[in-house]
Write a structure and sequence with these properties.
The complex is a heterodimer of chains A (284) and B (218). With 284 residues, chain A is α/β, with parallel strands linked by helices. In chain A, 32% of the residues lie in helices and 30% in strands. Chain B is an all-alpha fold and 218 residues long. The relative contact order of chain B is 0.15. Classes of the chains: A alpha/beta (284), B mainly alpha (218). Chain A: Pfam families: ABC_tran (PF00005).
Amino acid sequence: MLALDIRNLNKKYPNFQIKDVSFQLEQGYIMGFIGVNGAGKTTTIKSILNMVQADSGEISILGKNIAEHETELKQDIGCAFGDIDFYTRSRLKTLTGITKKFYKNWSDETYYSYLNRFKLDENKKIAELSTGMKVKYSLTLALSHGARLLILDEPTSGLDPVSRDDLLDIFQELIMGGEISILFSTHITSDLERCADYITFIEQGQIVASSEKNEFKESYRLLSGSESQLNEVKGKLISCKINSFGFTGLIHARDIDPAWSLNTAIPTLDDIMIYFAKKEGVYV
Amino acid sequence: MYNLVLKDLKLGVNPWFFILPLILGGLMLIPGWVYFLVPLYFCFITVPNMFGGFKSQNDLIFSTMMPVTKPDIVKSRIAVIVILELMHLLIAMIFSIFTFRLYPQMTYIFFPPYMGFWGLCFIMLAVFNLIFITMYYKTAYKYGAATTASTAAAILFAGLVQWAGIQNSWMHGIFYGSGTGNAALQFSILIGGILIFAAFTLMAYRIAVRRFLKVEIL
């Protein structure tokens, strides 16, 4: 079953547009949604949550159209926005007391078990929590109402490496039962190297690729060679960097000519993002 | 809808704004004052502070993340406004009973607080609601222009009817003179005011929902 199914999503702003965004997330997996700042990750996520009105396209969550079943589906969605705080002068227990009334599947038992696990003090105010603790609190709320799809917008931004590592372990544990799925937007791609099953890469409002993580990485190659060899391959490179030792560029694996005597390597997610960001014009 | 109202009452609205009607109600004890100012303080103080709080606390995103519809978000917010408005008016009305007891021989320059006057207050807040709510829900966070325009309109209404009450003998008769002894007339003005308040607020709700459905929650 698809936890999330986005087809041909379009949204036009005066200076930016989301164009034909389509991707699917299978239930029980983690999908990393990557792209540079301003690529369209948050706009896509807000469209999923019906916060932004798409010009066209269809969004289905757990088999149901969000536009038609918004209230019902939001019972099954948990979200966390890394950089937004709500009612920061309120205590956790106050905010929880209000939030739980909205959800019919709320479980106090689950809530307190996560509260203990994350070492969150109910009597603290939101403002007193560290960034990592805030994300953990958002997760606690999401998991306590039995969310089956977690939509997390840059939840690891601003976290220290230990908190990030901890959070990624939690994400992996959550999907083990096969019931919970996670869409996780970030520009910190090393997090996804560790925990994502699928990668969806968005660049300037368009999906460049959406596939299994290793398949995604292996569909590209980092090519390096001397400056004199550059002319031979330049037309096929997505983009390249030139330095005193020669050049390094990103290329689609399918475009590699076996006759070339160049060094090739599988790029990291960071490499792919960086070289795509340097690319000019329209995508393949 | 009920949960959203509860959320506003417990989280969004500072308890001070529930105490304020009691304090402002005390202003009704000032003899012969411009009593229109008592409900107007709701527009001057409560509304900008309360909506400033909603904006700074990111209430809009919090509410839209909950499993509720956009019309419910508007409906609950209007319910909170109406609850506070009714608190202001009802408490002021109760204080006005003591005003008449304290100053039985008072000669009023401005409207004395009979039932008819409270009917006018309901109409004044109806005007305020219609303008404030509809303007606010163009963005669902910008409250400055909406507060200014709606408060100005409410003051204008109050100023005009007060002027008419002083200058026009028919109006004067209803609100100061022999009409004040006519319980049926006074009561019907009050009921009329309440009906206008309900109609304008309902109209504001419908327009606000239409506008809010187009608002992008950024």
